[in-house]
Amino acid sequence: MSDWTKMSKDELERQYSPSRWSLRMSADDVIRAHVAALKSGTEKARAVTQTLIDVPYGDGDREKLDVYLPSSPSPDLPLVIYLHGGYWQFLSKDESGFLAPPLVQKGVVVVAVGYSTAPTGNMDLMVSQVRRSVACVIQQYSHISGLYLCGHSAGAHLAAMVLSTDWSEYDVSPQIKGALLVSGVYDLQPILSTYVNEPLKMTGEVALRNSPSHFLSQLKVSSTSCDIIVAVAQNDSPEFRKQSEEYFKALESAGLAVSLEDVPDTDHFSVIEQLADEHYSLTQLLLKMMGKS
């Protein structure tokens, strides 16, 4: 596998442009189709489940949660926190409920988290926000049987940062039981010179302190009993696939409970969109992780 430090800026940009690797349609079309799929899926979720919309976890405009609730409360109530993708600069919680129906019907609470995307928010702020959102959920839903994370792309990066949190600053110690990290970026350094960083304006120092691959020892302390699934699309770019494979290997070497799922016949977008389908392999893995399959 080639070394990103030896790639030209053009090649790095190509590697870190997920839409250019879809075999289904053109780059622009696949992004439009992705946003449409997430929006329609979220509209459906809001129509068929009980919801609490715009629950604040902080004072910022974007510091809000949407909660999707099972109709029959049960004592064994797992909760999934979903962190959306969009390269830290677009999408929001308002398109993030699409995965709720198959989970809610199995008695799982789903929480979609909002955070301040760039250029309004920077990387340090986003990481702080998702950590605070988890602390808030733990305080509000103390009766849940287990807390699980799911994140896609930028959201998988943020979920990995949550797993690597030193919770002593937050007055809670969430025992996160499982995490599904889908097509994430775990080392931010390769994107510093690409278009992705233009709204983020990360320095090398900021990229390093927000790269989950550099915080494995903290993850081992904070999330030692967490069952982690690192998933990647068959048609993700070689660099995206390498990010997932290397993060998986690092977690495995650290002695954590982790598996790598290479999802066939998917690209960077369809790999997450299909979580709306109860029969999809990743939906089934998420339910199995919670003992709900």
UniProtKB/TrEMBL annotation:
Pathway: Amino-acid degradation; L-tryptophan degradation via kynurenine pathway; L-kynurenine from L-tryptophan: step 2/2
Annotated domain remarks: The main chain amide nitrogen atoms of the second glycine and its adjacent residue in the HGGXW motif define the oxyanion hole, and stabilize the oxyanion that forms during the nucleophilic attack by the catalytic serine during substrate cleavage.
Alphabetical list of Pfam families matching this protein: Abhydrolase_3 (PF07859)
SUPFAM superfamilies: alpha/beta-Hydrolases
Positions of the catalytic residues: 153 (nucleophile), 236, 268
EC code: 3.5.1.9
Top-level enzyme category: hydrolase
InterPro entries noted in UniProt: AB_hydrolase_3, AB_hydrolase_fold, GDXG_lipolytic_enzyme, KFase_ver/fungi-typ
Origin superkingdom: Eukaryota
Catalytic activity: N-formyl-L-kynurenine + H2O = L-kynurenine + formate + H(+)
Short motif (HGGXW): ranges: 84-88
Listed GO biological process terms: 'de novo' NAD+ biosynthetic process from L-tryptophan; L-tryptophan catabolic process to kynurenine
Biological role: Catalyzes the hydrolysis of N-formyl-L-kynurenine to L-kynurenine, the second step in the kynurenine pathway of tryptophan degradation. Kynurenine may be further oxidized to nicotinic acid, NAD(H) and NADP(H). Required for elimination of toxic metabolites.
Keyword vocabulary terms for this entry: Cytoplasm, Hydrolase, Nucleus, Tryptophan catabolism
Subunit structure: Homodimer.
Residue ranges constituting the Alpha/beta hydrolase fold-3 domain according to the UniProt record: 80-268
Cellular component GO terms held in the UniProt record: cytosol; nucleus
Family: Belongs to the kynurenine formamidase family.
Name of protein: Kynurenine formamidase
